[in-house]
């Protein structure tokens, strides 16, 4: 095992991170993002649990949509309103952006001119370049989110794409939004991809003018009604009309997010993520071994991971 931090140092980093110190938190995240972080991860999450940080009350919010729809800009506005109107709570943004560089200084993408007080401890930004899938979640995203949940009340995850990425994010998110622009090709794309049930809500951004807003609301709600009729039992998710330019709809969107509740069943999430990891690492062979692995359904990801690895290694012999 590579000893990355002495126990005392790890404890200190956790304490500092929990108080909103950015550097210690960034350090912990960087360690988690290393390809061979398993041992560190095990120690870290055990230590977090022992120190009373479990992240059970944190809410994860997914923002997906085509590049340029305005996800980063919206998150910038949300952050600003959050700091002004929600005292005592903390939020983090994880932007998974194929164009971003992990060591770069850009917080929410270079195009967004977001100025937040640097010393503000209630807010944290992190960019992760996506690796495997274009614009999709990278293999460490889940663990980074688990860590952030221990310290922040709300975690926003921005990912590019429509379709598969949407589904990946919605598995991690307590609530997921699809961000679209009026009169874009997104709606047709969306209908084709047939993922009606995935987003919990829609955001039509760039509704800078009233007429445009009305027309696009009409188009989207008609599309959704049409889809509801072909998807039995479907209901129409809420649609938010926003404009970063005029600030329309931002506070309404934030108020809606603030009312969201975390999933009660994190154990289901652990299972989904373990399956994803096993499938990538060992293929169907691994999944089969996993189905015969006994583990505590409420155990941590690392506990389940260890049992699964043991089982798989036994079979490889
Ligand atoms: N007119 C207008 N432009 C916007 C709005 N929201 C974002 N933009 C612009 O759209 C471009 C892409 O925004 P960005 O937030 O980077 O999109 P992302 O790729 O979805 O994160 C930027 O130039 C923004 O300034 C809006 O509500 N109205
Ligand atoms: Mg962006």
Percent in helix:
40-55%
The CATH topology of the largest domain turns out to be Rossmann fold
Second-tier CATH architecture of the largest domain:
3-Layer(aba) Sandwich
How many separate domains?
3
| Radius of gyration (Å) | 20 Å
Biggest sheet strand line-up: 3-2-4-1-5-6-7
Please count the beta strands (DSSP E, at least 2 residues each).
7
Q: Approximately how much beta-strand content do the residues carry?
A: 5-15%
Uncertain runs: 100-113
CATH class of the largest domain: Alpha Beta
* CA(first)-CA(last) distance: 23 Å
Instruction: Give the overall average pLDDT.
Output: 82
The largest β sheet comes out as: 7 strands, parallel
Shape: globular
Could you name the CATH homologous superfamily of the largest domain? P-loop containing nucleotide triphosphate hydrolases
Which molecules are bound in this entry?
guanosine-5'-diphosphate, magnesium ion
Give the helices and strands as they follow along the chain.
HHHEHEEHEHEHEHEHHH
Number of helices: 11
Structure characteristics:
Rossmann fold; binds magnesium ion; alpha/beta; binds guanosine-5'-diphosphate; 317 residues
Notes on the protein architecture:
GO terms for molecular function: GTP binding; hydrolase activity; kinase activity. InterPro entries: GTPase/Isobutyryl-CoA_mutase (IPR052040), P-loop_NTPase (IPR027417). Keywords: Chaperone, GTP-binding, Hydrolase, Kinase, Nucleotide-binding, Transferase. This is Protein kinase. It comes from Leptospira dzoumogneensis. This protein is an alpha/beta fold. It has three domains: 1-53, no CATH class; 59-258, Rossmann fold (3-Layer(aba) Sandwich); 265-317. Helix content is 48%, strand content 12%. The chain has eleven helices and seven strands. The protein has helices at residues 7-18, 22-32, 38-50, 71-85, 141-151, 164-172, 186-193, 210-230, 250-258, 266-291, 301-316; strands spanning 59-65, 91-96, 123-128, 154-160, 175-180, 201-204, 239-241. It has a seven-stranded parallel β-sheet, with helices on both faces. Helix 1 (7-18) crosses helix 2 (22-32) and helix 10 runs parallel beside helix 11 (301-316). The longest helix is centred in the last third of the chain and has 26 residues, at 266-291. The model is unreliable at 100-113 (pLDDT under 50). The structure holds guanosine-5'-diphosphate and magnesium ion (MG). The site of magnesium ion has 6 residues, from helix 4.
């Amino acid at each position: 095992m590579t000893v990355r931090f002495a126990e005392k140092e790890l404890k200190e980093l956790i304490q500092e991170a929990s108080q909103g110190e950015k550097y210690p938190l960034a350090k912990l995240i960087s360690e988690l993002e290393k390809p061979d972080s398993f041992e560190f991860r095990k120690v870290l999450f055990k230590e977090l649990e022992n120190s009373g940080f479990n992240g059970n009350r944190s809410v994860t919010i997914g923002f997906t949509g085509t590049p340029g729809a305005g996800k980063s800009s919206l998150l910038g506005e949300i952050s600003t309103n959050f700091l002004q109107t929600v005292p005592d709570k903390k939020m983090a943004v994880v932007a998974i952006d194929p164009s971003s560089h992990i060591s770069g200084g850009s917080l929410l993408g270079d195009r967004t001119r977001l100025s937040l007080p640097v010393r503000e401890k209630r807010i944290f930004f992190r960019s992760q370049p996506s690796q495997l899938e274009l614009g999709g979640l990278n293999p460490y995203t889940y663990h980074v989110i688990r860590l952030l949940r221990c310290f922040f009340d709300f975690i926003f995850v921005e990912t590019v794409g429509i379709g598969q990425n949407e589904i990946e994010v919605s598995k991690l998110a307590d609530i997921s939004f699809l961000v679209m622009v009026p009169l874009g090709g997104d709606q047709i794309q969306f209908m084709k991809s047939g993922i009606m049930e995935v987003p919990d809500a829609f955001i039509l951004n760039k509704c800078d003018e009233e007429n445009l807003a009305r027309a696009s609301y009409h188009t989207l709600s008609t599309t959704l009604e049409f889809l509801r009729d072909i998807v039995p039992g479907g209901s129409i998710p809420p649609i938010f009309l926003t404009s970063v330019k005029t600030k329309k709809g931002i506070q309404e969107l934030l108020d809606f997010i603030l009312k969201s509740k975390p999933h009660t069943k994190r154990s289901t999430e652990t299972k989904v993520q373990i399956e994803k990891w096993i499938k990538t690492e060992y293929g169907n062979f691994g999944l089969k071994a996993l189905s015969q692995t006994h583990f505590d359904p409420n155990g941590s990801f690392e506990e389940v991971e260890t049992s699964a690895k043991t089982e798989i290694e036994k079979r490889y012999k």
